[in-house]
Structures are given as structure tokens and as C-alpha cells.
């Protein structure tokens, strides 16, 4: 009887270990998204510590070059060249600056709590946000992360949608949005410059 109990216990531990390992297995695309998010997080932390103006033109150009995708057809955005901020319409630039400012200031306001240093992300498909996940399109499911304070992993702080490399659209994985909305029975993301639901162009649903 003791041997049988030990066998059952070993089997349960093996199954649990295997399930855990599967949960932590990322696709190539997800790994790129997580790496990009971590680079962006480090960028935020550095500039919080430096008390920098993250909205000046140098920072904006760098973030668009390195981290963000916005839906412009300009070669400067699609081919990794220097970003020309003048090509962004004034109303989109205002929205972009507000999006970045709101995100950045969330962590500035919590500087003493070291929230920025402790945020981490995972693919939404292996998170506990099953209600949202089950209502996303296939494109959204494949390209969304949830982010949270690793000291409090059960509290989701937000959602990120990435645009992966798509011929004629984007050459590198970039952050498209961190604003998730719901309308007419569908979840949609609003881009950093205010465009809603662009990701539905890449879904058959």
C-alpha cells in the first residue's frame, strides 16, 4: 500500500512538473515580444531614475525606432530608418504623447514602490485571463501579453498587443497598443496614436 501511495505521488508530481514546463514554453514570436517588453521596461526604469523628459523629440524618435509601431506608410517607419516626427499628423502626435505620458507616469507615481522594476509579462494564452482570451481573435491571441507586478502575479496591470513582422506592413516585432476596449461584443485594441481595431485587418474572424 505504501509503495502504491508513493507511486501515485510521484505520478502527480511528474504531471504537475510537465504541465508547468508546458506553460513556460513560448513561441519564437512570444519570446521576441517578451524581450522587447523587457527592453522597454528597462528604458522606462532608466528614465525614471534620470527624471528625464520622455516626450522630447529624441526620446520619441528612439521609442518609435526601437519599440513602437504606428500605422504610417512612410519608409522611415517600415525600413528601420530615422523617424521623421513631422510625418505624424498633429492629432495623432497629441494622442501618442498622451499614451506614452499616461503609461510612463503610472510608474513614476509608484517610484517608491519600485513597480517599474518589478513588472513582467507573459503571453495571454497562459495567463489566468481566460474570459478575455476566449473572446479574442486568433491574431490577438497570438500577439498579446499581459503584464503585472511579479510580486503580485494575480493582479493584471494591463494588456499589450504587438504587431509581428508582416510583409508590406512591418519588418520587426513592435508594440502596437496597451489599451484594450470592448464594443459590440468584441475586444479591440487602440493604438498608441489612437487607431482602433487595426489588428482585425489580420484576422479571418
Which SSEs are present, and which pair or pack?
Layout: H1 2-23, H2 28-49, H3 57-66, H4 75-78, H5 90-108, H6 115-118, E1 119-123, H7 130-133, H8 138-143, E2 144-149, E3 156-163, E4 174-177, E5 179-183, E6 186-190
Antiparallel strand pairs: 1-2, 2-3, 3-4, 5-6
Task: Looking at this protein, list some descriptive labels.
205 residues; alpha+beta; 4-stranded antiparallel beta sheet; two-stranded antiparallel ribbon; 6 strands
3D structure, described in words:
The chain is built from eight helices and six strands; from the N terminus they run ααααααβααβββββ. It has helices spanning 2-23, 28-49, 57-66, 75-78, 90-108, 115-118, 130-133, 138-143, and strands at residues 119-123, 144-149, 156-163, 174-177, 179-183, 186-190. The chain has a four-stranded antiparallel beta sheet. A hairpin with a 6-residue loop joins strand 2 and strand 3 (156-163). The radius of gyration is 20 Å and the shape is globular.
